[in-house]
Specification:
By secondary structure, the protein is of the alpha+beta class. The protein contains six helices and 19 strands. The protein folds into two domains: about 240 residues, Zn peptidases (Aminopeptidase), CATH 3.40.630.10; about 70 residues, RNA polymerase II/Efflux pump adaptor protein, barrel-sandwich hybrid domain (OB fold (Dihydrolipoamide Acetyltransferase, E2P), Beta Barrel). It is globular. Bound molecules: calcium ion. The site of calcium ion has 4 residues, from loops.
């Protein structure tokens, strides 16, 4: 028998109007014997209609999503809504509070912890609640990401190539409506345990972003996030009004050759900036060893022609780090 989730919501997902509350997860610890993790949630509902589940802070060091979603929760008027909007601006709330990618409680990476367990770690209990309680309520699932502390991206909205072409078509239409400067048909290097995969396997329309990175946000990327999420809600007919369309450039990630990884530690020198064109064979980055002078840098070369869509952000790099992602226009 499957155990019930330990999480109790303080909101009623079927009630009309605006509710601000919490997903309360009991978490007994040294500083709070009968304490809880209080994950903020907002429900805006106005009668029958499609339901959107909007999330940020899946990784705790990415800020465009939380900035856009706390704002949306504060401002969305139910009279402009037909259906339901469920907003969880900081999904991995312990990680978000710590400003880290993974949870400081159990080191859980929320986007590798689906479908979760009701009797697992704190992170697994949260993913289990999304898997069994929130995802089934949604027609469209929108999950904001950015690069976090260690990656930086050209701002893009994305969906995955899927076996069900109907489901895929709806997702790419929502990506187009989002109107980020770039739109990506995305390939995952590590899809097991992802929220994306959980939603798609349930037949949901799943859309995501990578809007910047470096463990912060920029004025431009936050504007893109705010405009984009309203556009998607309008496109889905959940919020009144027409889509504020901006031109977007479509990018493809045709194979694992998009990615380059460091094979040694060192100091990284970017030879190409984000959004710049690269030719196959060109040097994208150099890794300088720092233990002694007189060493030639290791060169990282593009395996395909395209544009630089993502790069390692910190100045130091370790063997195994993703150095760059090249995407094809
Ligand atoms: Ca992320």
């Amino acid at each position: 028998m499957v155990k019930p989730s330990p999480i109790s919501p303080t909101v009623d997902f079927d009630r009309n109007g605006v509710q601000h509350g919490f997903l309360r997860l009991p978490y007994s610890r040294d500083d709070s014997a009968w304490g809880s993790v209080m994950i903020p949630v907002c429900v805006v509902r106005n009668g029958q209609g499609p339901a959107a589940l909007l999330t940020g802070g899946n990784h705790g060091d990415e800020y465009e999503g939380p900035l856009a979603l706390y704002d949306l929760a504060r401002t969305l008027d139910p009279k402009d809504v037909s259906g339901t909007v469920i907003i969880v601006p900081a999904m991995n709330y312990p990680a978000f509070r710590a400003g880290t990618r993974t949870s400081p409680i159990d080191k859980g990476n929320m986007n590798r912890a689906f479908p979760g367990r009701p009797d697992g770690t704190v992170t697994e209990k949260i993913t289990d609640y999304f898997q069994r309680e929130l995802l089934p309520r949604a027609d469209i699932v929108f999950d904001f990401h950015s690069g976090g502390r260690t990656l930086d991206f050209v701002p893009f909205c994305a969906a995955h190539i899927l076996p069900d072409k109907g489901q895929e078509g709806k997702a790419f239409a929502a990506v187009e409506a989002f109107s980020a400067p770039f739109s990506v048909k995305m390939l995952e290097i590590d899809a097991v345990g992802m929220y994306d995969t959980a939603a798609e396997e349930m037949g949901k329309v799943f859309v995501t972003t990578e809007l910047g990175g470096g463990g912060t946000s920029r004025a431009e990327t936050v504007r893109i996030a705010r405009r984009g999420i309203m556009n998607v809600l309008r496109h889905e007919g959940i919020v009144k009004g027409s889509v504020d369309k901006h031109s977007t450039r479509w990018l493809d990630m045709p194979s694992g050759d998009c990615f380059a990884f460091a094979e040694e530690d060192g100091m990284i020198e970017t030879m190409v900036d984000l959004g710049e064109a690269v030719e196959a064979g060109a040097v994208i980055a150099r890794i300088h060893s720092t233990g002694r002078t007189g060493q030639a840098p290791q060169e990282i070369r593009a395996k395909m022609s395209g544009l630089l869509a993502a790069r390692h952000f910190p100045g130091l790099v370790k063997a195994g780090d993703c150095v760059s992602v090249v995407a094809v226009e």
